[in-house]
Write a structure and sequence with these properties.
37% of the residues lie in helices and 18% in strands. By secondary structure, the protein is an alpha+beta fold. The chain folds into three domains: 2-78, no CATH class; 133-215, K homology (KH) domain (GMP Synthetase, Chain A, domain 3, 2-Layer Sandwich), CATH 3.30.300.20; 219-283, R3H-like domain (Ribosomal Protein S8, Chain: A, domain 1). The strands form three sheets. A three-stranded antiparallel sheet has the order 1-3-2, with helices on one face. The longest helix is centred in the C-terminal third of the chain and has 23 residues, at 217-239.
Length: 285
Amino acid sequence: MKTVRITAKTIDAAVEEGLKQLGISREEAVVHVVEQPSSGLFGLIHKKLAVVDISAPDEEPAKEEEKTPETPAEEEKTVEEPKAAPEEKPAEEPKQEEPKPEESKAAEEKPEEPAAAPEEKGRRKSEDFVFNPEEQEKTAEEARKFLESVFHGMHLDVTMERMMNEERILFNLHGEGLGILIGKHGQTLDALQYLTNLAAGKEFHHHYFVLLDVENYRERRKDTLEALARRLAAKVKRTGEEVRLEPMAAGERRIIHLALQDDGAVTTESEGEAPHRYVVIKLKE
């Protein structure tokens, strides 16, 4: 199976170029999206292009059977089956124990990127990590410089209030017209936080987590989500019908799960595919 990797502004453009190079139709192709395109942040950061692998099926499958006995193994290595890979592990390899249902919901929603939930206490550190105040101070200074450059480019007058402990570095941002830094449901703030961690954490392998907030927005958003969760749970109990919330980031879904984890009448689950995963609240069976 012949495979080409195409980079373009959009997935459709990448697929079209790959089909042209392989000389095949869309129906014949096997398309694997390696990386989704990104529009960038505020127009100040370079946009990410779409990266797509397009594969063409073998033209003469019958001849492949006449190859040496090693051929099937070689073909299996060529064809990527990302979803089936976990099932092909050797039987003797120890499997991770399945988490209990009541523990899995909160665990699955822990953000994997620096755009963490407000209650997140920073990245999980390696066992050999030793906290160093000087390294943390240097990380905080790099974060400050990066943020200043962003705000300067956006012509924003921002006061940065810095607070630190061994778990995280918090910058609470104050100023006029900072709603642009928050975005819809904090999405822009999360993106800026992610980029800040990338810029500031390179030297020390991101051991020192940087959290951004605007006028205590994250705490207010957390209170809003918890109130929403309780209100919708009451509706589910009253009508007996499940309720689906709008798609949310992992950190916000986790807030919903935690808000209702002790409710004996309802249960919560996350459904859908990222970035459109959402929480479902329903009666316990």
